[in-house]
Amino acid sequence: MKNLILLILGIIISAVGILNIRGNIGTVHSYNRKKVKEEDIPKYGKVIGIGTLIIGISVILAYVLAFWKEEYTAYAITPGVIIGLAFILYGQFKYNRGLF
Q1: How far apart are the first and last CA of the chain?
Q2: How much is the pTM?
Q3: Helices (H), the chain
Q4: What is the structure's pLDDT at 1?
């Protein structure tokens, strides 16, 4: 029961990722999307959304792994966050031409 927050957080993060993949980049801070060209918004949303979805799924996986052993949660979250952030940073540099 104490790991239920992982499941809730994972579902919320995954839902935001799906919104971004569908082209809704309103969940991304305005200063992180201000230089994105109008024609690049769907591509930007897809890359950012995939990264966010990977992070969300890794948090959900950590919730499932916590049933066996709580120490396994770090093994699920760490690679998911690293891979997800790599996608997000790629999208930021490619379509926003920088972090800010």
Answers
A1: 39
A2: 0.90
A3: 4-21, 30-33, 41-65, 73-95
A4: 65
